[in-house]
Amino acid sequence: MMAEQGTMNYRGKGYRHGGSPAADMIRLGLDPGPVLDFSVNINPRGAPAPVRERWSEFYELIGNYPAIEGDGVTRFYEERFGIPRTRCLPGNGSTELIYMIPRVLGVEHAVVVTPSYHDYERATLLAGARVTRLRLSPEEDFAPLPVAVLSRALEEADAIWLGRPNNPTGTLAPKRDMVELAERHPDKWVILDEAFVQFLEEWQEESLLLEPPMKNVLVVHSLTKFYALAGLRLGAVVGHEQTISLLKQAKEPWTVNAVADRVATLIIGARDYDEESRRVIAQERDRVYTKLKEGPGYRPCNPTANFLLCRWEAGQDLDDLLRHLLVNGLYARDCRNFPGLEEGFFRIGVRRRAENDRLLEVLASAPGA
Ligand SMILES: Cc1ncc(COP(=O)(O)O)c(C=O)c1O
User: What are phi and psi of 211, to 5 degrees?
Assistant: First the structure.
């Protein structure tokens, strides 16, 4: 692992979200058309049933302003996870909160454990702060960094960003390490992104969301991935009462829209959906992982959530594989714009069984595989 001080710029072309199959088809000389999109890492079961069943009721909501602070989302965290409302700030997806945190807390220099979700870095730079990247090593399958290494890097900064599980590597930094890090540095911010945590089979044991609050720890959480509500935009940041109060004072009103806020209350009771999603996704994920690991041409990293980071080892140019997938109606996330993943890395989201079978079949027929 190594630390890297950047001349990073938030306008950098590396800050690209995935999910534009048409643009990639044009880039690769193909005619745009429909694809099965494995670049998204959203629950393949779709939103919980009550959301679809009661959709027509939501029209009534749009004529009025919603609650100022997303009361339905707060209720979800309170009734579902036992998190008091004083410790929870809802947002327009976790993205809004990721951008708000460094700005409001006045972060000046943040460590970002990479490769990871670009927006930690972009949000930090937009807040006028510096970024130091701390790299997970591909040779070690992006294994979590020892707490001593994180701690040393944090000595020079005032905040650290870490995804758990981390996107796109699937790395899960141990909970006890996070607590130790926060205890060693009570005057620094430890910002943990747990957007994908509910996909973990033992998520309640792994998550810091449900732990007693620490003054310098913030846990960002999303409801868009696990509940397949990405278009609605809802999530929250959870932390110590004092820190949440600080953020609340700076928060724009009404950013959780009325439909999202109502939907949050409808998923409070979706316990069966949660259990079934975790079970089915873990089963499919492990099946895809084993097949890829045992077959030639691909090196998948040990997955923990609902996506797999893989390295294509059979060819020189990842475009050849991406083109092969697209010609066969499939789309994967090209990860070469993540610092550290320039050499042949791509990510696939776990989908339904028949779709995953199709993916495995097409991957097996790729050039050199
Ligand atoms: C690791 C991670 N965190 C947070 C987000 C933001 O999710 P949302 O704003 O939909 O809650 C994403 C979206 O891709 C993500 O990959």
Answer: -85, 160
Would the pTM of this model clear 0.90, i.e. be above it?
yes
- From 20, 117, 223, 347, the mutation candidate for ligand 1 (largest count of ligand atoms within 8 A of CB) is 117
From 39, 92, 167, give the residue whose CB has the most ligand 1 atoms within 8 Å, as the site to mutate. 167
What distance in angstroms lies between residue 296's CA and the mean position of ligand 1's atoms?
A: 32
pLDDT digits (tens, 9 = 90+) for 4-40: 655 566 665 556 676 689 999 999 999 999 999 999 9
Fold of 57-269: Aspartate Aminotransferase; domain 2 (3.40.640)
- The CATH code for residues 13-46+272-364 is 3.90.1150.10
Q: Across 141-278, where does the E strand assignment appear?
A: 159-163, 189-193, 217-222, 235-239
- Give residue-wise pLDDT tens across range 181-193: 999 999 999 999 9
Strands (E), 45-188: 88-91, 109-114, 130-135, 159-163
